[in-house]
Amino acid sequence: MKTIHAVFFTVLFGLTFGNCGVSKDGSHNRGILAMDLIVMSQPQALVYIANQGSGNFGVNVLQVSMTGAVSLLPGTSFGAIPGGLTATGIGSGHVLSTVKGANQVAILDARQGSSPLRMLSVGTNPNTIYVDPANTDHSWLLNDGNATGADPILCSATQGSFSVIHDTSDPVLLAHTHANLCVGKGPHDAASQTQDPKLAMVTNQGDNTVSVIDNSEDSPTFLSQTGGILNTIALASKPKGMVYSSLTNLFYTYLPASPGSIAVIDPTGNGNTGALGTPIASVGTTYSVLKSDTTGQFLILAGTDTSTSPNKGTLQIINVSTGVKTPITVGSTGFSDVQQSPDGKRLFVSTASTDASTSTNLMYVYDSSNLPSLNLLSTIPVGKAATTYRTFALNSTGNSVQNIFVPNFSDGTISVIDGKSYNVTNSFTVGGNPSLTTIFQQGSGSSSMNMGGMNGM
C-alpha cells in the first residue's frame, strides 16, 4: 500500500508537470486542490473497541475522518472473549487483540477488511498488552495463566509467562512472536526503562514478585530466557500497576495491602539488575490504577472505595521527589481509568462500579496544569458501566485532544465526546459489553491504553 505522502507526490507531479500548456499558477492550484481532496478522504483515526461481555464477542471499529465525522465500520468476531487491545507502535495500521479463550492474539487492520490478518498462538489466558516505549516495534503481552497464575502451555506449573510480539509493515511477515519468557506466576503489568541499563519490570501477582528483564537490544541476553531474566524481586503484597519515570530513572508499583504503599525499584541497583529503594508509605488501599503524569514528576492513583454504598471515587497525586500525597474523594461514584492530555493540562477520569446504588454515568475532567492541584472543570454524561473497570480512548492531534471515546459496558454503546467543548456529539450501539479501546492514527501507532509507558490496572 502506498503511503499518503507517496500518493500526494504522484498526484502533484502528474498535475504540475504532465501538461506543459497549463500555467504555473493553474497547475499549482489544481495540485493543491487534488491534495486537499485526498487528505479529506483519508481516515484521521480508527478507534477499536473490544466487547468482553456475554453474547457478542469481538471488536468493533469507528472511523474518524479528516473532517471529524465519526462512522461505524464492520467489526470482527473471534468466537471468544477479547482481552487486551493495543495499536502497535510503528504506524503499520496493525492492532493487536488478545483472545483469552483461544490462547491467541489477533492481528487486525480495519483498512484491509474485517477478518483478522493473522492469529498467533501464545500462552494461557492472554490478557493485557502494551507497546514497549523503549522498542516501539515490540508489544508485550502478559499471559494471566491458570487459576494459580501458571502457564502450562509455555512454561511449567510454577511459572507464568509473557510474549513479545514484533510488528512489521511487511505484508508477508506481519506481526510475529519475537520471544516467550517464563517468569513468576500471574504476570499482569510491565514498564520499560528508556535509559541505560534499559531494563523492564514485570509484576507477578500470583507470587508477589517483580521480574527484571534485560530489554537492551545491544545486549547478548536481550529478551532471552537464558540470562535475560536478571533478577526476581520479592514484594510485601500483590503489586498493581507498574510505571517508569524518566525524570527519576526509577520504577514504581502499588501494593494495596493495608496501609497501602508504593514500592520503588532502582534499576541501577544490585549491579544494574534492580533493587528496592525507600517506599512511599501509607497511601491507602482503595486504588486499582497507577499512572504517571506527562513529566514523570507525579504518580496518579485512581480507584473506588467500596466500604460504603454508594461507593466513593478516590484519586491521589503523589510527588515522587518529596513523597507528598494529595488525595481527593468524590461521593456516590467509582473511579476507574485516568488519562492525561498530551500537554498535561487536563486529566480525564472514567467511572465504573458494580454497586447498584453508585453512579457510573459520568466522565470527570480536571484541570491538571498545576499538579498536585486538581480543579474539576466538567462532568460529562455518558452511558453506564456496572463493572470493575472502564477505560477510554483519547484521539489527539499534537497536544490537542480532538475526541474522547468512552465504552459504556452496561448499555452496549460508545459515547463520542468533543475534546474542546466536552459535549457528547454522538453515540454508537456496538452490542455486547464494550470494555477496552485503542486508537490507530494515520502515520503513527498510538494507543490510548498507554500513558507514561507500559502501565495500567
From TrEMBL:
InterPro entries noted in UniProt: Host-pathogen_enzymatic-act (IPR051200), N2O_reductase_N (IPR011045), WD40/YVTN_repeat-like_dom_sf (IPR015943)
Protein name: Cell surface protein
